[in-house]
Specification:
The chain is α/β, with parallel strands linked by helices. It contains 14 helices and 21 strands. It has helices at about 15-25, 40-45, 80-85, 95-100, 115-130, 195-205, 270-285, 290-300, 325-340, 355-360, 360-370, 395-400, 415-420, 435-445; strands spanning about 5-10, 30-35, 50, 65-70, 90, 105-110, 135-140, 145-150, 155-160, 175-180, 210-215, 225-230, 235-245, 250-255, 260-265, 310-315, 320, 345-350, 375, 405, 425-430. The strands form 3 sheets. Strands 8-7-9-6-10-11-12-13-14-15 form a 10-stranded mixed beta sheet, sandwiched between helices. Helix 5 (about 115-130) packs across helix 7 (about 270-285) and helix 9 (about 325-340) packs parallel to helix 11. The radius of gyration is 22 Å and the shape is globular.
Length: about 450
C-alpha cells in the first residue's frame, strides 16, 4: 500500500485494532476513532497510536491518505460523511485483509462458531514450528498476548479469520480454507439459511487450485476443490477415544486411509474444541508441519481470552468467562463446562447481543439458558442496532425455565455476585460484559 497516513473508523474492534497495530509496525502513520475507550484502545494508545472518542471531523488530522472502516460504522456517521465529502479513499477492513491474502499463502478460517480458536491455534502451531508468518486473530491469543502476529516480506503464511458478516470473507484469496460450522446467524445480512449457505459456497470456490478445503464433516459441502473432512466418524481425518484427565483433554487422531497419528493432548475442553483442534491439525499436516511439532504445539496452546477462559479458581469457587453469544455456542460451552465441573452449581451471567439475534433465536436462547442453575440476564447489548419493540431481556426471561432467574442491571451485578452462594460463575456474551471480568475476578480474590 502506498498510502502513508491511515485512519481507522472503529479502531477499537478486535479485527480493526489488529490491522491498526499491523500498519503501525510497518511505520505508517496510524490514527483513529472509536465510540468508547476500552482495554484494546488503551493498548493502541500506549503504543503511540492517536485515538479520539467523539464522532467529530474537527478532531481528524488533515493529511489522511486512506480510511479503513468497520462495517459496524453507521451511515450517518459524521466522520464517515466527512471523508466521503472530501473524496478521501475509504475501504473496508475485509478489503485490506483480501489484499494481504493475495501476497502470500493464506490460511482463512471461516464458520459460525470456533473460528477464533482455530485461527489462534493454527497461528500458535506454525509459530511454534518456527514458520515465518503473520496472523490476524479475532481475540487475544494467550500465547502471544495479542490479536496480531506481525511478520515481514519473507512470510511463508498468513493466518486470518474469514468473517461471514457483511460477506467480508468473499474478499479473501485463501490457499487453505477452513469451515468449522454453518449455523443461521447474521440474519440482518442474510435473509435465510440458504443465502448464508450460498455465501459459504462462494467462499469455498475462492480456494486456490493447489490448496485445500478443510471442513466439518457434518456440513454438506459440494465442491470440486481438493478437500478434507474432519469429525468423530465417517471423515477423512477423525478424533477418537476422547478423555479428560489431569486438567487436560486427550484424544487419538486417525485417517480413513488407516494412518494413525497417535495421541494428542491439549488444555482446552469440550467436544467442540476437539473438533477445533482436529481442523487445525489437519491444516498443519497439509502444510507439512512435523506431527511431533504439531503435538507439542497443541499441548502448549494456552487458548484465547474469553473462550472457556478460567479467570479464577480456588477450592470453593471457579469463575469462567466466555464469548458465546449464539444458542449453539452457548450450548457447546455449557456442555463442556458441565463435563469439567459436574458437581458445581452453575450461575450464568448472560448479556444478549443484538436485538435482531435475540428476536430471531428467542426460543433457542430460552432453551439453552434454562440449562443454568441460576441465571442473571443483563439487558440486550445493541451494538450497531436500534431497539425493536417487544424484544427485551424481560420477554426472553419469561420463556426461560430455570428455577432461579432474574433480569439484572449492570450497576447491581457485583452486589448480587457478592451476596450469592457461588460455586461456578460463568459470564457469557459478545457485548461489553467483558468490562466486568476484571471486577468479578477482583471480587472473588478479595
Amino acid at each position: 500500500m502506498k498510502e502513508q497516513s491511515i485512519y481507522f473508523l472503529g479502531i477499537g474492534g478486535i479485527g480493526m485494532s489488529a490491522l491498526a497495530r499491523y500498519f503501525h509496525s510497518k511505520k505508517y502513520l496510524v490514527s483513529g476513532y472509536d465510540k468508547t475507550p476500552s482495554p484494546l484502545t488503551q493498548k493502541l494508545e500506549s503504543e503511540g497510536i492517536k485515538i479520539h472518542y467523539e464522532d467529530n471531523p474537527d478532531l481528524i488530522d488533515s493529511n489522511i491518505d486512506l480510511v479503513i472502516m468497520t462495517p459496524a460504522i453507521p451511515s450517518d456517521s459524521h466522520e464517515l460523511n466527512y471523508f466521503k465529502n472530501n473524496n478521501i479513499k475509504i475501504i473496508k477492513r475485509a478489503e485490506v485483509l483480501g489484499e494481504i491474502s493475495r501476497h502470500t499463502k493464506s490460511v482463512a478460517v471461516a464458520g459460525s462458531h470456533g473460528k477464533t480458536t482455530v485461527t489462534a491455534l493454527i497461528t500458535h502451531i506454525l509459530n511454534y514450528a518456527k514458520k515465518k508468518i503473520s496472523a490476524f486473530v479475532g481475540g487475544i491469543a494467550k500465547n502471544i498476548n495479542s490479536n496480531v502476529l506481525i511478520g515481514d516480506e519473507e512470510d511463508e503464511f498468513v493466518v486470518m479469520e474469514a468473517d461471514e458478516f457483511d460477506r467480508s470473507f468473499l474478499q479473501l484469496s485463501p490457499y487453505v480454507s477452513i469451515i468449522t460450522s454453518i449455523d443461521a446467524d447474521h440474519l440482518d445480512i442474510y435473509s435465510d439459511q440458504e443465502q448464508l449457505m450460498q455465501a459459504f459456497e462462494q467462499f469455498v470456490e475462492k480456494t486456490s487450485e493447489d490448496g485445500l478445503l478443510v471442513y466439518n464433516s457434518s456440513l454438506n459441502i459440494m465442491s470440486d476443490k481438493r478437500k478434507m473432512s474432519y469429525g468423530f466418524e465417517n471423515s477423512d481425518i477423525m478424533a477418537s477415544d476422547v478423555i479428560v484427565k489431569d486438567e487436560m483433554t486427550y484424544f487419538n487422531i486417525i485417517t480413513k486411509d488407516g494412518i494413525d497419528y497417535g495421541e494428542f493432548k491439549m488444555q482446552l475442553f469440550g467436544n467442540h474444541n476437539v473438533m477445533n483442534a482436529l481442523s487445525a491439525v489437519a491444516t498443519c499436516i497439509f502444510l507439512n508441519i512435523d506431527v511431533d511439532l504439531i503435538k507439542e504445539g497443541l499441548a502448549s496452546f494456552l487458548g484465547v481470552q474469553r473462550r472457556f477462559d478460567i479467570r479464577y479458581k480456588d477450592e470453593n469457587v471457579c469463575y469462567i468467562d466466555d464469548y458465546a453469544h449464539h444458542p449453539e455456542e452457548i450450548k457447546a460451552s455449557l456442555a463442556a463446562i458441565r463435563k469439567v465441573f459436574p458437581q458445581k452449581r452453575l450461575t450464568l451471567i448472560f448479556q444478549p447481543h443484538l436485538f435482531t439475534r435475540t428476536r430471531d433465536f428467542m426460543n433457542e436462547f430460552a432453551e439453552v439458558l434454562s440449562l443454568a442453575d441460576k441465571l442473571l440476564l443483563l439487558e440486550i447489548y445493541p451494538a450497531r442496532e436500534k431497539s425493536i419493540p417487544g424484544v427485551t431481556s424481560s420477554v426472553l426471561l419469561e420463556k426461560i425455565t430455570c428455577k432461579e432467574k432474574r433480569v439484572c442491571q449492570k450497576d447491581e451485578l457485583l452486589d448480587i455476585i457478592q451476596s450469592g452462594d457461588n460455586e461456578l460463575i460463568v459470564t457469557m456474551g459478545a457485548g461489553d460484559i467483558d468490562r466486568f471480568v476484571p471486577q468479578i475476578e477482583l471480587l472473588l480474590r478479595s
